[in-house]
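Example record for the data management plan.
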Amino acid sequence: MRSSDSISSPPATRNRPVVTLRSFEIGDREFFASLATDERVVKFVGDGSPWSAEQIDSRIDLALRGLPASEPGAVRWYVAETEGERAGLFVASRREDTVEVGYWLAPARWGQGLAGVMLDAGLLVVREVFGALDVEAHIDPANVASVAMVERRAFRFVGRADGIGRYVRAPGAYAA
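Corresponding structural encoding:
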């Protein structure tokens, strides 16, 4: 997926909104900073503390570096938009044999079903960009909504490291 490309979720239904993922651009810095400095959003990220401007800039630099998707360490960020507004961020990071995914949703958009739709669209992007690799998510067990969301999408718990649950989805489970 090139920087100008985007992917949309299936058409909206009464209970399922439409989300479009587009590649992150430097103009999205303020939006990302609003997520990264919101205690509610980062509660289950790292040590749970809001990020500093240096952390934000460092992560944005990494996201915009543009390593080839086949190279471990390659990162792709996508801004999730709905109803013409930014709503969240979907992140995919290439590891040796897997792709780790993560997602952040603006608190004003919580409870609207957007996180699941964003993850569904993101899984399609991962398949397109990184190929047929296992996808993993690392989730704090206290984040029960996120655990339930990935389990509904065929991610399976495979263990814990440093108290964080590791959930893996095999390539054959891609049909969203």
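Summary line stored alongside the record: The radius of gyration is 15 Å.
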